[in-house]
Write a structure and sequence with these properties.
Length: 67
């Protein structure tokens, strides 16, 4: 588990959405994942990261080492 105050973000959610919408058409119910401030120390290559949004589904990604 990782925690980060949104007030410490470099760019606000509104700024991120504005930037994304310059090149992508945003629609109602779209999800914009803002990520985290750093890699949590407990995450290592091979781990499975899951993000679940009720009513939408689960996004699963395997962690890989940087090249």
């Amino acid at each position: 588990m990782h925690s980060f105050p949104t007030g410490n973000m470099l760019f606000s959610a509104a700024e991120v959405i504005s930037d994304v919408s310059r090149t992508n058409t945003m629609s109602p119910r779209d999800v914009v994942w803002l990520g985290t401030d750093e890699v949590p120390h407990s995450v290592k290559p091979g781990d499975l990261i899951e993000i679940e949004i009720t009513g939408i589904g689960v996004l699963r990604n395997r962690v890989v080492a940087e090249a």
